[in-house]
Write a structure and sequence with these properties.
homodimer, about 325 residues, Phosphoribosyl-aminoimidazole Synthetase, Chain A, domain 2, 2 domains, six-stranded mixed sheet, four-stranded mixed sheet, 10 helices, about 25% strand
Chain lengths: ~325, ~325
């Protein structure tokens, strides 16, 4: 017998708020949020759906983490320090309580890791699949939020981590791809299930980058978003795009890796004069950062090979419809 | 042929944000929100699902309004002035663009009426039903948010508007109830489809009420929430509970009206010494307010008849599971 709605909130969700009296232990209709002088509140929201953004066979705790991390990655891309979030959940009545407890345990462990906490939410019965919606709050120094629109001709283009791992992990999970090396397979799947928000790197970039966003639609598509918002063109050098060893070992089509999406790495630009500061800052946060392209006048994204020849890509990223 | 995801956001949703440059026309990954000195940000979130909170045969613009008004009503219950919101939408690919445009037109007209605007959101394809999640933001003077927990023994209990109309409207819509008077039927259905957030009244109550919340689970259930949070007992006088003429004319079971839910009226308490100020404030906002009960030591909610005899209620309100 599963707990009632009120019992679930009181016993399983309210502990996620216990560090913050202004969440009122989820016993009121709203939470209060303070914004310190000198800061602006950064707000981002995402909805994640069963069958679209996650699968029911994914571990419940990883789904909880992905729901939170997708928004934390958005905040990281904007240079904001995460503070708190509200979460709405819709689930079928038949969903076991143990699943919900595991989902919340994923949130709880991430709360510690990323120093955020829950301040509110909503739960509802769903007559169809599971659906989650999370709105995350962060702080950034007034006027300093990193935008998509700040890239200037001449800027370097950088990307964090490695690209394409999550896409490969998803292909392995969906049995569209065979990976005999269990260690590599597990690592790639982990990159899909538990993306790593680049929170510390994002904070450092507030003073260094000219434009930034997190890569969720695919490297090429998100470079396109940055180019469009900044009214510039971007050239990506295929050979400089960081690909992990487990990904390389699978001998994938590189074009698929850079258009696959779900990377949750940071893509950002900076003036050449600050190149070494940017790489030093990345080094300090322990996140590998690679210079992968340049910004110029014009529009659109071009991917070039080592000889500077344009590579034709058939797809440029994930769209919902 | 429906517009693509990006076109929908640019052409249909972005105009909802045009009054606010810090929404970046929905072209960035996050919005910025300022909180003026002397105020706290009030945050509330709700998820509304097809088949649970609304039906596909409801008018699309009314669904848009209900999604927004459910949260505006929460803010009103807390005494907060609404400022902005973020909205996530999941809809099937087969949903016609005209439906989406009508949904957004409902939001647009409510934005004018309630002086709020959209600052962000997310859209996703749904493989099952429609789902919406809205997080609303309001401002309240620091330390002044109306809580559920402030009621004290001796306080009066008040309710705004009339109770049970929305429940009757839903019964008529679901053809569980026959209402031959078309005018009355339309009015009751309207009370279900387009709840009226008591925003102006809520703002006035900041200086007058001791506890407050909006009635969504049913008058008796929400009185119970107030009693529990305030650690007091509440006695509701059945004969004083405001029932509209169209509702009375249907000769319904009053117990069903006061447990039915979806009223989105304000239920609040205040010291007897401020009774006339409270009624004057209500009069100024044009919202009828009725004194319906008293707060005392103890626990729980009792409903009594004109002779003070306890009325037994079989159900105490809507629960999701």
């Amino acid at each position: 017998m599963r707990k009632s709605e009120f019992e679930l909130i009181r016993d399983i969700f309210a502990p996620l708020t216990e560090s913050d009296p202004k969440a009122f232990a989820l016993r009121d209709d709203a939470a209060l949020l303070d914004v310190p002088t000198g800061f602006e509140l950064v707000v981002t929201t995402d909805m994640l759906l069963e069958g679209v953004h996650f699968q029911m066979q994914d571990p419940a705790d990883a789904i909880g983490q992905k729901v939170l991390r997708a928004s934390l990655s958005d905040l990281a891309g904007k240079g904001a320090a995460p503070i708190s979030y509200v979460l709405s959940c819709a689930w079928p009545n038949a969903l076991p309580q143990a699943w919900i407890e595991s989902f919340v345990s994923g949130l709880a462990s991430d709360q510690k890791q990323f120093k955020v906490h829950c301040i509110g939410g909503d739960t509802s019965a769903s007559t169809s699949g599971l659906a989650f919606s999370l709105t995350a709050f962060g702080l950034v120094e007034t006027g300093k939020m990193l935008l998509r629109s700040g890239a200037r001709p001449g800027d370097d283009l950088f990307v964090s981590g490695t690209i394409g791992d999550a896409w490969l992990g998803l292909q392995i999970l969906k049995k569209r791809l065979d990976c005999e090396d269990e260690g590599a397979s597990g690592w790639l799947i982990g990159r899909y299930l538990r993306p790593e928000p680049r929170t510390c790197l994002g904070r450092k970039l507030v003073e260094l980058a000219t434009a930034s966003l997190d890569v969720s639609d695919g490297l090429v598509a998100d470079a396109g978003h940055l180019a469009e918002a900044s009214k510039v063109s971007i050239t990506l050098r295929m050979d400089d795009i960081p690909i992990s060893q487990p990904a390389r070992d699978l001998g994938p089509d590189l074009a698929e890796l850079i258009t696959g999406g779900d990377d949750y790495e940071l893509l950002f630009t900076g003036p050449p004069g600050r190149r070494s500061e940017i790489l030093d800052a990345a080094h300090e946060t322990g996140v590998p950062v690679r210079r992968v392209g340049i910004v110029a006048d014009g529009t659109g994204v071009t991917v070039v090979d080592a000889g500077g020849r344009k590579i034709d890509l058939t797809s440029t990223g994930f769209r919902h419809f």
